[in-house]
Amino acid sequence: MDRLKAGYSCAASAALAIARRTFVAVAVAATAACSALLPRGEAVTDSPWHSFEEAQQAFDQIIIHKTTSADLKRLRVDPEITPNVIILNYSDVLRRFIPNPSIDASSLDLGVQECLRAATRCRGYEVDHRVLKRQRYGNFFADILNFQRKTDIVGWRFNAVVLITDDLVVYKLTGGQPAIHDHEKSTNPLGPFQGAGEGLFR
DSSP 3-state assignment of 143? Predict the structure, then answer.
């Protein structure tokens, strides 16, 4: 009889252990599945370039005093065929490079000086292209109830200025961030009642 009870006890313990492992596995799988449901977003400036390197390669083909307006169009650096390319007129160029009278024009790049001397024959293009992808991660229930939210942000940003005089490029400058990777974290002890709690003390 004692042996039978011992057998039943061992079987029950084994079954309980299996049940616990199964519960943990199911809980982990459910949490992972729920995390995949967290919001994600994307901010993209429409342009023909799909990476920082691709944009830089296009602008590397621009050669001062050799590249023409027709060449820029071929490289898709043209507001008529590429969205989000800003046209700079002479006044825009003047404000950008000489924002106040204390700046000596002779200290500027020779290409900028040439463009400014050309006055109304001076124009430019400005490009500011960015790609940012936001992905929330972490505990699904803490996020959805607003107790704690974590966001992973990745992307890149490219900007450039090209100055043109008489349909010939006289100046160019490129910059930006080849790789952007940031993390955001917000914690609200009151969770979904955080906003209401703050309102009581106003």
Answer: helix
Cβ contact 48:127 at 8 Å: no
Which residues contact residue 158 at a Cβ distance below 8 angstroms, ignoring those fewer than 6 apart?
49, 52, 55, 56, 127, 128, 129, 130, 174, 175, 176
Backbone angles phi, psi at 31, to 5 degrees: -65, -40
Dump pLDDT digits (tens) for 74-96.
999 999 999 899 999 999 999 99
pTM value? 0.69
pLDDT tens for 40-60 read 776 667 778 999 999 999 999
Distance of alpha carbon 136 from alpha carbon 39, whole angstroms: 6
From 175, 180, 181, 179, select the one nearest 56 (Cα to Cα).
175
Q: In terms of C-beta density within 10 A (0-12 exposed, 13-18 middle, 19 or more buried), how is residue 18 classed?
A: exposed
Strand 40-44 and strand 168-187: pairing?
A: unpaired
DSSP state of 68: B
What are residue 132's DSSP bridge partners?
A: 43, 155
Half-sphere exposure at residue 51, Cβ-oriented, CA atoms within 13 angstroms: 4
136: closest CA among 120, 154, 152, 123?
152
Beta strands in 45-118 (DSSP E): 85-88
| Residue keyed to tokens 């107790």 | 147
